[in-house]
Amino acid sequence: MDTVLTLSSKNQLTLPVSLVSFLGLGKGAKLWTKLINKTIVIEKVEDSWDQFQGLLANHPMSKKYTTLEIIAIAKKREAKRLAKKYGK
To answer: Domain locations in the chain?
Structure first.
């Protein structure tokens, strides 16, 4: 799907409704960006760590760390994984 985006005076991009619908994006959706030469690649982030907060309550790490600390640790690990995957 080819679309044209316009950069606003506040350096913001607005995605066309057709693209938002196609990707199944909603308010607060996370997108991953990657720069390849002079090309910007934007990908949908499939899972947000924030949605797992309730699931972590019974995790073995919860004996040593708070749920928010576990999420912070997981975010760092995921950032490293994505950086390695996408070459950053």
So the answer is: 1-46, 47-88
